[in-house]
Amino acid sequence: MTLATLSSPTSLPAGVLLLADLAPQQVSTIVGLAAAQGEPGNAGLLQRLAELGFMAGETICVLRRGPGGREPIAVQVGDTVFALRRHEARCIQVRVCA
Fold first, then answer.
1. What b-and-e string marks burial along 45-57, b requiring 16 or more CB atoms within 10 Å of the CB?
2. What does CATH list as the number for 13-96?
């Protein structure tokens, strides 16, 4: 499986956000995976996220956040709920559904 790394989070395409920046109950579509800026060695993390089902075109919803609105971030992809750390959620680029 090959992962295409999109542009860095500081220069996201118009309408694209990072999963870590979404509010709870916000439904979006995964655009792609990209290494978070300043995070070395993310190739393994991107591969693991893809293996878990965080693939372009999948619908994803932020269910809730941990204490103080921080970590973990509970998200749902399909019928599966995952708890992500903030640095993991910063690797997932999404477009909010209308």
1. bbeebbeeebeee
2. 2.30.30.90
Strand arrangement, sheet containing 16-18: 16-18, 92-96, 27-33, 59-65, 73-77, 80-84
Structure tokens at 38: 């300043």
Where along the chain do its domains lie? 13-96
The string of DSSP codes covering 9-45 is GGGPPTTEEEGGGPPTT-EEEEEEE-PPTT-TT-HHH
Write the pLDDT tens digit of every residue in 4-39: 444 444 578 889 999 999 999 999 999 999 987 666
What pTM value is reported for the model?
Answer: 0.83
How many CB atoms lie under 10 A from the CB of residue 67?
A: 7
pLDDT in tens, 51-65: 999 999 999 999 999
